[in-house]
Design a protein that fits this description.
The protein is mainly alpha-helical and 177 residues long. The protein folds into 2 domains: 2-105; 109-177, no CATH class. It contains 5 helices and 3 strands, in the order ααααβαββ. It has helices at residues 14-18, 27-57, 64-96, 101-105, 135-146; strands at 129-130, 162-163, 175-176. It has a 3-stranded antiparallel beta sheet with strand order 1-3-2, with no helix packed on it. The chain is extended and about 60 Å long. The model has no long low-confidence stretch (mean pLDDT 77).
Length: 177
Amino acid sequence: MPHDFINEFYYFDFTKIDGCPDAEPSPAEAYDRLASWAGRARDVNPAVFDALTEWIQDDSEWVDVKLAENETFFMRGVLEKFKNQNALLRARLKELEPPGVVKKMQKDFTVESFEYKKMPAMRFVGCECEEHEGVGRRRQIMRTLDELSEYRSGFDNDVLFGHHFGQSVDSGPWHGY
């Protein structure tokens, strides 16, 4: 069946998060398990989404004889499953808020100020780097960009985008742009 790839998704599994009824994890352990699940899902799911995209874009899959079956599969097998999974995840994270687990796991993180600014259209230019490499390369690129004064946007700050491979911000290596 061409829809087998749907089983390749790394879905949220409450039994892995909540453990067995005899040994319920602490809220901090449950949060750690959620973060680990999210990291694994980010490793696995993009490739499966690519397969799903290829299937959606394959015109031969959307002819009259396959249309009803594929529509049902897409609506119930894919969208409904993700909608339900996201609802369960939100509910579980909401349960962890009262004990303060989510706040504790993001320790020492505070927002000093937050404001919206209306800016002209701009393009972000960057370089890909790992945690402890590329400092000299980033400085060289920033110097080059700083020399392009006729293209200034009024946002004269350097921005570093980074992710932590699905883990919390205070653990593991990061990958930056």
